[in-house]
Amino acid sequence: MIQGQQAGNDWPVFRGNSDLTGFTTNEIAHGPSLLWSKATGVRTKSSPVADDGVIYFANEKGTVYAIGESGKIIWQRETNQTIEAPPLLFGNNIYIGSFDGSLRAFNKLTGRPVWSYSTDNQIVGSGNYWISGRYSGIIVGSYDYYLHCVDPETGKLLWKAETNNYVNGTPAVSNNKIIFGGCDGIIRVTDPRTGVERETFEIGSYIAASPAVADNRVYVGDYDGALYCLDMSSGEIAWHIPAGEMNGSILGIPAVGNNSVIIGNEDKYLYCYNATDGKLVWKYRTNGRVVGSAIITPAKVIFGSMDGNIYMLGLEKGDKIWSFDAGAPISSSPVVAGNRFYLLTEDGRLLAFGNK
């Protein structure tokens, strides 16, 4: 059973939910209109998140924004540190990492600083959350070779798990397991309460992005351009697409839903594979690298390209339904909230689409 976002206005993790599948049961209209655009004037590689009609994101200047449904700023907070990581929403707070190695918590309603936790190197990936009974934790990877887990309320370290290289993606959480990769080329499965490693999958090439987890399978791409489906029940690789069939690096996270795995590539294509056996279903060429991650609705795929366009394709055949020239490269992942979706351009504009 896919554990992606359910219909509603919340998108707390930049991939919709803690499993990172980028799948939503909400449907988006065939021909959405640009409702508004909010410019910050500063470059961003981050992706937004949403909660109760408020959109949160950050830019490379280190400004964290909360924007209302009308496009007006509710609050903004300066960190004075470069931020590329998407925010995370959990409980009453927004959590975001930065290049100085800090994970900061702010009150999501007011922007008031709550706490700051320091790692020993930069954070470029989003945090995630786990819940196990009455316990919970915020997890984030760092270039200090560790995955860190802290208490959501206090920022106190609960545990940290050591790896052999940078951890620059976002850890996925599914079925009481934390699944994450890094530049050591290993997918690790960790216990959320203790940080103890349960099992590993050797990929071989470093993993620039993050895994998506659905139905006890892990889908992840590597920097060489190979795509893997790992079966956590058997501990084996169920299928993989060798590097070369896709001709560039995979920098995004696979979107998984309706038995489809959607992944972009630096070779300018978006690919759709059958989730069961890995057979190619379709591919769609853009005019720029596809480095962000797509989302899947019940019948559509929405994604941005470095060619500056936002695309909406039919999920079944990959046919183009709609596109929009955003005027700047896009490496962000879309957010779906209600019947709207939101996307950031690299020149720092938040775009809102929906029905007028």
How would you characterize the overall build of this protein?
The protein has 356 residues and is mostly beta strands. It has one domain: YVTN repeat-like/Quinoprotein amine dehydrogenase (Methylamine Dehydrogenase, Chain H), CATH 2.130.10.10. It has strands at residues 33-39, 49-51, 54-58, 63-67, 73-78, 88-90, 93-97, 102-107, 113-118, 128-132, 135-141, 146-150, 157-162, 172-174, 177-180, 186-190, 197-202, 212-214, 217-221, 227-231, 236-241, 255-257, 260-264, 269-274, 280-285, 295-296, 300-304, 309-314, 320-325, 335-337, 340-344, 349-354. The strands form eight sheets. The chain has a four-stranded antiparallel sheet with strand order 1-32-31-30, with no helix packed on it. Strand 19 and strand 20 (227-231) form a beta hairpin.
Detail the poorly predicted runs. Answer: 1-7
The total of beta strands comes to 32
Task: Look at the structure and give the mean pLDDT.
Answer: 94
- Order of strands, widest sheet: 1-32-31-30
Question: How many domains, in number, for the residues?
Answer: 1
User: Which percent bin holds the helix content?
Assistant: under 10%
CATH architecture: 7 Propeller
Strand content: 35-45%
Rg, rounded, reads 18 Å
Structural class assignment:
mainly beta
Produce the secondary structure layout.
Elements: E1 33-39, E2 49-51, E3 54-58, E4 63-67, E5 73-78, E6 88-90, E7 93-97, E8 102-107, E9 113-118, E10 128-132, E11 135-141, E12 146-150, E13 157-162, E14 172-174, E15 177-180, E16 186-190, E17 197-202, E18 212-214, E19 217-221, E20 227-231, E21 236-241, E22 255-257, E23 260-264, E24 269-274, E25 280-285, E26 295-296, E27 300-304, E28 309-314, E29 320-325, E30 335-337, E31 340-344, E32 349-354
